[in-house]
Amino acid sequence: MKTLFIHKPLFRLLSPLFSGTLVYLLILLINNTIDELGDNFFGQELYVCIGLAYLIQEYVRVSIVIFKRLKRPSSFFVKTILQIISTIFINIALVSVAMYLYFTNVLYYTPNSNELLVFNSIFSVIALIYILLYVSHQFLYMVNTEKLEKEEWARLEVEEDFTDFKRGINPELLFESLEAILVVMKGNPDKAEQITDSFAMVYRYLLSKKKDELVPISEELKILKELLQLFSELPHRKIQLGKIAVDESMVVPGSLLRIAEKVMRTTIPSEVKKMAIDILESENELAIQYKHEERIGKSLKTNSLNYIQRDYRYYAPEPVKVVHGDVFKTIYLPKLYLE
Hints:
Blueprint: H1 9-31, H2 37-40, H3 44-69, H4 76-107, H5 113-169, H6 171-187, H7 189-208, E1 215-216, H8 217-231, E2 238-244, E3 250-251, H9 255-266, E4 274-281, E5 285-291, H10 306-313, E6 321-324, E7 328-334
Parallel strand pairs: 2-4
Antiparallel strand pairs: 1-3, 4-5, 5-7, 6-7
């Protein structure tokens, strides 16, 4: 869409043939009657008009390219007016010089003002039509681009809403929890009830806090303990909370839960060996730290937490970071406070 058809080689080759013939036909109609067209149609002047049409159309095409690359003036309207005025003036100069050379060197007399006026008027109209084609193409391109941008924003918004919905539901954890409940229910109904309570508390928190921007970290830690209790019934590495040394800051709802789940799914499963997650703080950051024993091809990296990065970007300039040490892997979250 962005490439205008006047730049196509086939159009550049054929268009002047038709426009030059049309110019010659109009000049004949001005100077002769319709009955005399047949006698005077084919002549040297026809080829001169076609050649002049090639010159004018190529000049206008080059001027369109030049004005398109100009950065100033920035206003599209001002640039268009400037382009029309400059193109028409240069077009008049080119036509006048070409006609003067043709009349003096071929026809051996000087053209009068009426003859120059006819040629300049017709070829100026052709140049103006070319510019209007370009302007209309640009307007159409801007309108279509705006529509495409709106459609793209709508598509991204739908995808974002679906991703948020999927994250809130978390189908993988949902099905694993239901399977664990079904397995335990037959042998130990009381334990199955405890798993169901933890499962319900986690999902109630995720769904009820979906519209909240921030929650106290103490509330998040309470649900995190229930989530880790739920993890203990799943066929993954058993995880428990280790050191907790944080003040009453705020976090994005579900961020600690999602990090804990990501840690669980990237760590080598073990039925006997447990992992401790420490939650510490510095002056400006929360640090979620654990001894990493990661699965092959499932390492926890910064781009694994893109959705958390996006959420925290609204509240803090500092990015979410993942630092991989020899023993510990640490996820840093910016500390948030309500002012």
